[in-house]
Amino acid sequence: MASAIAWASGLPAAPLVCAALNFAAALVMAFVLAPATPLAAEAAQRSAYVQANLVAWRIGWTVWIAAALSLLWFYAWWRGRVNASYVAVVLAVLGLIADVTSESALILYDEATALLAFGLTGVVANGLYTACGMWLTLATPLSSTARIWAAVMWAAGITLSVATLTGAYLAAAVATAVLFALFCPWCVYLAVKLR
Question: Which of 56, 57, 99, 195 is buried deepest, with most CB atoms within 10 A?
Fold first, then answer.
């Protein structure tokens, strides 16, 4: 037991924090934020849900901002471990700017801008994060199994952006679930592999 704890304590923080915060963000989306997304409700219903659950709504989007910040930290750590181009992290920084902008707008919630904010986070931010992740994956020496895992994960990221852009919100929700289910363990995998 002591050797397992010592081994785990040597793991890098960035990927583990990213895994934990993105897992928390996925749970928050499923149990707090989802009822006011375009998939679940019409505009009036979304607005009523947000007003009735304003504190939980704002905390939920704050968790998503924390997850986005941890993602940037993880990507910077990953880039350093594989000595990839800084351009990949620049994509993630641009994604973070889009994400924090949209999620801040969603914290304040105005129905007139909500669909634009959902689009900004789902299309622009997610698209840039996915491009960064794909770039870093290509720069990382991986087994065939890990490459297949990554291909499915990043395909879910692409699907999420395309589905959000085209208003296919059910497909966007499924893609989000697949992306987060694969991404959180991916962070832990890289923490071990690249430590």
Answer: 99
Distance CA 66, CA 55 (A): 17
Q: Are 74 and 15 in contact (CB under 8 A)?
A: yes
Closest among 129, 121, 130, 150 to 29, alpha carbons compared: 121
Q: Is the pTM of this model over 0.85?
A: yes
3-state secondary structure of 169: helix
Q: Dump pLDDT digits (tens) for 94-136.
A: 999 999 999 999 999 988 899 999 999 999 999 999 999 999 9
Residue 2 lies in a domain: no
Number of domains in the chain: 1
CA angle 150, 14, 92 (to 5 degrees): 60
